[in-house]
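Lab channel / #folding
Pinned by the channel admin:
"Please post every new chain as: sequence first, then the structure tokens as a reply. Keep commentary short and put observations after the output so the thread stays searchable."

First post following the new format, from NK:
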Amino acid sequence: MILVRSPLRISLGGGGTDLPSYYKENDGFLIAAAINKYVFVSVMNPFKNGYKLKYSEYENVNNIEDIKHPIIRESLKLGFRKNIEITTLADLPSGTGLGSSGSFTTALLKALYINSSKNLHPDELAELACDIEINKLKEPIGKQDQYIAAFGGISSFSFNKDDTVDCKPLNISDDTLYDLEDNLMLFFTGYSRSAGKILKDQDSKSKHNDEDMLNNLHKVKKLGFESKKALESGDTRVFGELMHEHWENKKKRSNGMSNPKINDWYDIAMQNGAIGGKLVGAGGGGFLMFMAHDRAKLRKALTSAGMEEVRFKFDFEGTKSLVTS
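Reply from TO:
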């Protein structure tokens, strides 16, 4: 059995500039962090030919083309054994803004290749996962999820016009790292959504050179660079203030980016110990993330308002095999 885990992620600045519709004309830049919440994929080889798949549904088919799960189907088309059993589990549900689709794809591919006695470099793994989701399945999504899942850590990513990606770990001190782990807080809104549906409008407007959308993304990219500078200099207060500016700008992209309930929770947080915050991921639901100057007060206010906190630490291992037997 092969067992692989891949971390989920939080976006720390510049999110949205990793879509090809933006970076192929303007270059993209963002910072993201892998966290110790994971997607797990196991691969086994039963004696009988066929494909047994266990995720939120169960499939047992003989032909790849009959597989309903699009990512599994396209991954298996790359050429693997014809007797495969795949099981998936996750610490947190999909559709919550933490990049679970990219994490699942990198975990699946790594497990399949290890099962075929081949190991992929993180860069190869990330690009292969992007090819499946963006090129083969035509999802209007970006590349950050696959790359931060593959590499792990807290990193900056430059998305270049020639489709290459440069990954650089942030130069963050231990004190800043501990400050972030203590005071960066995640709260679940209770809303799940499809990132592809949220990003479709952004993708379309970028392709058609919509001035407002492009200016919005230019501003987000600038905030990404400023957030990197704040973190590397150890100024987490400025980082929190930049998160707030990022969220105010991000809400302008789409009417579906937020809703009255999310806005109410955000206001409560800002009045009770938060420096700044934003919805993680494409928007519309998932997790609200805040930088706190008084985490006890913030925690009490938001849990009293009905939100559930998910505590985390950072993951520095990326997509990793746990069992190879």
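NK: The mean pLDDT is 93.
TO: also worth noting, The longest strand covers residues 28-44.
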